[in-house]
Task: structure prediction
Amino acid sequence: MKIHHLNCATLCPVGRSLLGQGGGVTERGRMVAHCLLIEGNGGLTLIDTGFGTADVHDARRRLGGPFVRLVAPSLREEDTALRQVEALGFQARDVRDIVVTHLDLDHAGGLADFPEARVHVHGPELDAALARKTFREKERYRTVHWAHGPRWERHTPGGDRWKGFESVRALSGEPEVLIVPLIGHSRGHSGVAVRDGERWLLHAGDAYFFHGEMDVSSPRCPPGLALFQSFVEVDRSARLANQERLRELKRAHGDVAVFSAHDVIEFDRHAARP
Result:
């Protein structure tokens, strides 16, 4: 089994210093969309998708004008999951499974590029995305991203535990992939745990945004990212409680590497690992 760390969307919001990246408040920062591509016995598995090829060419309609203005995404087709899969010598149909941390537009934008894949998602997240009950949910969940009719695989935890967390097995064998509910950012937000030999990777999605939030002795978050997380959250107490649980996971389990979806430092560290 081989795991590739891919950046499938680069976001460039203004306020670099407010993102903990130095520079000035009027400079643009850099955030990534950290996805995983797993080569396993049963074909390829994607963890999150970033933006899709159609998003690159029709961003305002598919992503929404407010989002495009806020984060100024660098829209390059070669950054999409599909083109990176092809650059590795595979085709779209080789991707058999996609497991999403949640269905926000910068995580699910590439679903349509892999129409034959099974899409595994935490049940409450799928419900929220299809219902889109609130104004914010209408903005974060873009129905155009699943207008092609994905092969949804709905998962609901049933008592299984992983490192003290409730979990549900999305894929068995190789790769071994678990959905780990981490609600707060969205109604059904989850982490995705992947066994990597003797260790585990936990893609924590948007459970946190800055590597310093996982500092077990003195957690910290730059003001711009703290404000954004508060603005988009659906359950503040659950989000903060899950961040503390993730810090405890790091304290107690040295065999687990935790990373989030948008932190550049975490992505660069994992992408550079042989």
